[in-house]
């Protein structure tokens, strides 16, 4: 399902490179998944009543893939597959990247008008296995997203209230960010009118702690 040839082309594009080193390593790919599969997955989200809500903020998430419809489950399984982890190991130069399909694999997320996720650095070491979370991949599923809808992924320490790097959550865009102790990231205020929801799948990629000692 993943168009690895398109990923390679975008990595090697001269006019707008997929890889950006600042403020910390990240990659931006567009249209590497079948649009119809993403539309079906977007329609297969469970009701927010069965997802975990953020108190006082219109944000919901779940790691329980059994709550999702078949198309969303299938897309999650593809993103959790060994082929993608192996490809990203080659791209990033980090050996041994793996996902945790039966553990802290990531989540599928929803956010509505007024939601915000302030800049933060997530924990990058698994409390039980000791594995290090090296990268996270965000895949965006809401069609027709506009710049004025907000909900931009923001990377880096804000300067005068503005983040140095802002990435629009366009439909069928996948963003891979390094997740170390310097990886400050957040999501700007979401202004899309109801009932529009920002739909995202997040997948984490881990290495064993002995691999290179990164933290």
From TrEMBL:
Superkingdom in the source lineage: Bacteria
Domain Prolyl 4-hydroxylase alpha subunit Fe(2+) 2OG dioxygenase, first and last residues per copy: 112-205
Pfam families for this protein: 2OG-FeII_Oxy_3
InterPro entries: Pro_4_hyd_alph_FE2OG_OXY
Name this polypeptide is given: Prolyl 4-hydroxylase alpha subunit Fe(2+) 2OG dioxygenase domain-containing protein
Source organism (scientific name): Streptomyces minutiscleroticus
């Amino acid at each position: 399902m993943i168009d690895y040839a398109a990923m390679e082309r975008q990595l090697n594009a001269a006019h707008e490179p997929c890889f950006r080193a600042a403020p910390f390593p990240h990659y931006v790919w567009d249209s590497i998944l079948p649009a119809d599969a993403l539309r079906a997955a977007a329609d297969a989200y469970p009701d927010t009543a069965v997802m975990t809500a953020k108190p006082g903020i219109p944000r919901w998430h779940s790691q329980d893939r059994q709550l999702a419809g078949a198309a969303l489950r299938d897309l999650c399984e593809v993103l959790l597959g060994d082929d993608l982890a192996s490809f990203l190991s080659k791209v990033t130069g980090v050996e041994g990247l793996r996902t945790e399909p039966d553990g802290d694999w990531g989540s599928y997320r929803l956010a509505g008008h007024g939601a915000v996720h302030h800049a933060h650095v997530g924990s990058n070491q698994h409390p039980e296995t000791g594995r290090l979370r090296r990268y996270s991949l965000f895949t965006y599923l809401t069609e027709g997203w506009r710049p004025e809808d907000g909900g931009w992924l923001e990377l880096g320490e804000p300067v005068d209230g503005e983040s140095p790097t802002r990435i629009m959550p366009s439909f069928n865009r996948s963003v891979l960010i390094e997740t170390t102790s310097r990886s400050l990231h957040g999501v700007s205020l979401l202004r899309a009118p109801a009932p529009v929801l920002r739909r995202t799948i997040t997948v984490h990629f881990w290495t064993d702690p002995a691999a290179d000692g990164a933290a």
